[in-house]
Specification:
By secondary structure, this protein is α+β, with helices and mostly antiparallel strands. It has helices at about 5-10, 10-35, 40, 50-55, 65-70, 75-90, 105-110, 115-120, 150, 165-170, 240-245, 265, 280-290, 295-300, 330-335; strands at about 125, 130, 140, 145, 150-155, 160-165, 175, 190-195, 230, 235, 260-265.
């Protein structure tokens, strides 16, 4: 039993080699354990707001590595070597101010976390939005494969991995048009023109080669308010209006603001390549919505405004005549047939 130890102890260089190996093994295990703690992530000077948002979020009881490192020893080792490089960069003050992190579906579905069956059966209504996971999982639109991180953002103010509604608006309410702008030399200007998709209560039949667009009818995401609403003396019962067949946009117009065009200069905020390397839109969506190059929708599309802040017509501007035209024409014709104002009835 002590034969190998005697053999090692017999030579000084063997003792140093064995001691060094033991230190490396113990130190390696200790460093892996230490760097797997969420508190370690906060040592980097740019991580404080994200660490704080994690502490306040729904996943505050889950260590960062559980989400940001996919299951599998190869993914774990790759992440640890990458993290070692980040530690060196942070020590030398070479850390970028634009952190990039991704969460794969495999991490969400790891043992003890979420399951596909449970998620597909989940239908959420928080009093404002309706969301059906089953209608989104496994779908693809405009080069975007719908994954957990398509809707759940890891960068959204003080909320960590919460739903960013800009992603909903980008697919359901925004479309693109052919670029008609041009540079002074006549060449096309590198720009993606965006528009607000017209509301279609029922999807139109698809033509040959057309891709099914996400529905944009109001009742796809919202339910009409219940009960009587009073605003500045005006009383509205949505159920009554809907029973008449009135469309939502007959009153609520302009609830989605037209987003700014996506110019090539926005790409240069992160990249330093030339315009010749810009990818086609579907491929660009795929690269930036999946894998380690995942970024948030608003990073390119900017702020997506939808709802009262974007509405061009509010209840304060409500005009009954926009719907009720000549509502009292019969009465006016009866009492004003002679073109004169009727005399008030004589008092008894």
């Amino acid at each position: 039993m002590f034969g190998p130890l005697k053999w090692i102890w017999a030579r000084r260089w063997r003792r140093w080699l064995a001691g060094g190996t033991l230190v490396l093994v113990v130190g390696g295990i200790a460093s892996v354990e230490a760097t797997s703690q969420s508190s370690f992530c906060n040592n980097c000077h740019i991580m404080e707001p994200y660490y704080t948002s994690w502490q306040q979020g729904a996943h505050h009881g889950v260590e960062c590595v559980k989400c940001h490192i996919s299951p599998g020893m190869d993914n774990f080792l790759r992440a640890k070597f990458n993290g070692l490089g980040q530690v060196v960069d942070d020590t030398l003050n070479r850390t970028s101010t634009k952190p990039s992190a991704s969460v794969s579906e495999m991490a969400c579905m790891r043992s003890g976390c979420h399951t596909v069956e449970k998620i597909r059966a989940d239908e959420t209504y928080n009093g404002k939005y309706i969301f059906r996971h089953n209608a989104h999982l496994g779908r693809e639109y405009a080069g975007n494969k719908i994954a957990c991180t398509t809707c759940h953002s890891h960068i959204k103010g003080d909320e960590h991995f919460e739903v960013n509604t800009a992603a909903c608006i980008a697919c359901h309410l925004i479309g693109s048009t052919p670029n008609e702008a041009a540079l002074p030399d006549g060449s096309p200007k590198p720009m993606i023109q965006l528009m607000v998709r017209p509301v279609t209560p029922r999807p139109a039949p698809l033509g040959p080669g057309q891709e099914k667009a996400p529905p944009n009818a109001c009742d796809t995401c919202h339910q009409p308010p219940k009960g009587l609403i009073e605003y500045r003396g005006l009383k509205i019962d949505h159920a009554q209006f809907l029973s008449y067949g009135a469309a939502c946009d007959s009153c609520h117009r302009g609830v989605t603001a037209k987003p700014d065009s996506i110019e090539d200069s926005r790409c240069l905020d992160c990249h330093n390549f030339g315009i010749e390397r810009v990818l086609p839109t579907p491929e660009m969506h795929r690269v930036h919505s999946e894998g380690r190059h995942k970024i948030e929708c608003f990073s390119c599309h900017g702020a997506m405004r939808h709802g009262p802040p974007a509405a061009s017509m509010t209840l304060a501007q409500f005009d009954c005549r926009s719907c009720h035209t000549d509502q009292h024409n019969v009465q006016r014709t009866t009492y004003l047939a002679s073109g004169e104002q009727p005399h008030p009835p004589e008092s008894a």
